[in-house]
Amino acid sequence: MKKIIIGTLLFFVPGLSIAQDSTQTVVLTLEKAIQLAMRQNTDLQTSRLDVEKANARVLEAWGYTLPSVDVSGQYIRTLKTPVFYISDSAGRITPLRIGAAHSANASVQVRQLLFNGTVFAGVGAAGTYSDVARELFRSKQLETVVKVKKAFFGAMLAGEVRSMMLSNLANAEDNLKNVKLLRGQGILSEYDELRAVVGVENLRPAVIQSETNYTLALDGLKSVIGLSHSEKMQLEGTMQFEPVDDSLIAQASSLILQNNPNYIALEGQTIVNEAFVLAERANYLPIVAAFGNYQYQAAKNNFSLSTNDFFASSQVGLSVSWSLFQGLQTNARVQQAQVEVLKSEEQKTNVRRNLEIGLTATVGNLHAARKRIEAQEKTVEHAERGYKIVTARFLSNAATQLEVNDAQLALTQARVNRVQAMYDYVIASAELDQLIGRLPAYVTQEEE
After folding, report:
1. Which among 152, 289, 409, 438 has most CB atoms closer than 10 A?
2. Could you tell me if 157 and 24 lie in one domain?
3. Contact, 315 vs 109, CB < 8 A?
4. Which residues pair with residue 85 across a beta bridge?
5. What is the dihedral of CA 380, 383, 388, 392, to 10 degrees?
6. Do β-strands 311-321 and 287-300 pair in parallel, antiparallel, or remain unpaired?
7. Are residues 165 and 132 in the same domain?
8. Residues 49 and 103 in one domain
9. How many domains does one find in the chain?
10. Pairing between β-strand 232-235 and β-strand 25-28 as defined by DSSP bridges
11. Same domain flag for 53 and 103
12. How many CB atoms lie within 10 A of CB 285?
C-alpha cells in the first residue's frame, strides 16, 4: 500500500517522471529534484507553517482593535426568596421577601476599544513579524536549494568517479590480457604479468568503494528532497561549467544587503523590538473604551413566561482606566525592550560582517575553481594522449608495465581533478545565489 501511495504522489507531481517498470525508478533532473524538495522537505514545511502562524498572529492583533460582542442569557429558579428587613418609625423590624420564583434575562454587550497604545503598537509589530517569518521562509528555501544542489552534484560526482574507476578497471583488465598475450609470445617476462595482475587487483577495492560512495550519495539526496530510502532513483543531466556573470559578482556586496533574507529578517526583528518599546511605554497612558448593553429580563412566580413579561433596558458609556503606579514594573519592561533593540543592532552588524566574509570566500572559491577547470581541461587532454602513447609503446615492447600504470594513474587523477573542480564551481555558484538571495525562477513561480 505504501508503494502505491508513493507512486501515485510522484505521478501527480508536475515535472517528475517515473520509469514505468516493476522497480518504479524515479528519474530526476536538478530542477525536478529542487521542485520536489520544495514540496516535501520537512524543514521547509516547518518554516512554511511558521509563516501561517505569523499571519494568524496579525489577524489576532487586529482583532483587539475590533469591537467585541457578547451575548448571554440566564434562567433562575428561586427556591426561597431572599428576605430584606425594613424598619419603621417606631423601630419595629418587618421582614419582607423580595423576588420571584422564576426569572430570566438575555443581554447583548458591545465594547469598542478607542485608545490603547499597547494594542496599536502590537498591530504594527505583528505585521512586521509576519514579514520576518516570510523572509525566514525564503532563507530556508535558499538553504534547501543549496542542499539539493550539493547533494545532487555530489551524487553526480560520485557517479563520475565510479564510472572512471570502472573504466580504469576495464583498461587494466584489457592491459592484463595484452600482457598475457605478449608473455605467451615470449616478449614479456613473468614479472610484467605479475605487475599487471597486481594492478587489476589493486583497482578492485577502489571500484567497490566508489560504488558504496555513489549509493550513499544517492541516499543523501533522497533525504534532502524527502524521498524514501527504498525508492530507486536515476539522475539525468551533466555537471557543466557555466561561468557566473562578472557583473553579478561585482554587484554582490550591495545585493546582499538588499536581498539576503537573513539580513532583511534581522532588520525586521529590530523594527519589531522597537515596536515593543513603544508598546511598553504605552502602559503609562490611559485605556479608553466605549461600551453598550441591551438587556431583556422578566420575573414571575409561575413558569408561564411569555414575551409580554420581558422588559428591555439599555445603557451606553465610556470607560477610562489609568494605571498610575505599578511598582516601577513598566519602567523595567521599557528598559528590557530597549536592550532587545540594542541586541538586534549588534546582531545585524555581526551578520553583515559574516556575510561580507562569506562573500569574499565564495568569490575566491569561484575564481580558484574556474582556474582549476581551465587548467584541468588541458591536463586531461595531455594525460589521455600520454596514456595512448605509452600503451602503443608497450604493445610494441618499447615501454614497461610501470610506465603504463603511471600513465593510467595520471589520467585517472586528471579526470577526478577536473570533475572535482567543476563540482566546486557549481557549489560556489549556488552559495553565491544564497548570499544574494536569488532563487531559481521555477521555485518563485511555483510559490506564486
Report:
1. 152
2. yes
3. no
4. 95
5. 180
6. antiparallel
7. yes
8. no
9. 2
10. parallel
11. no
12. 13
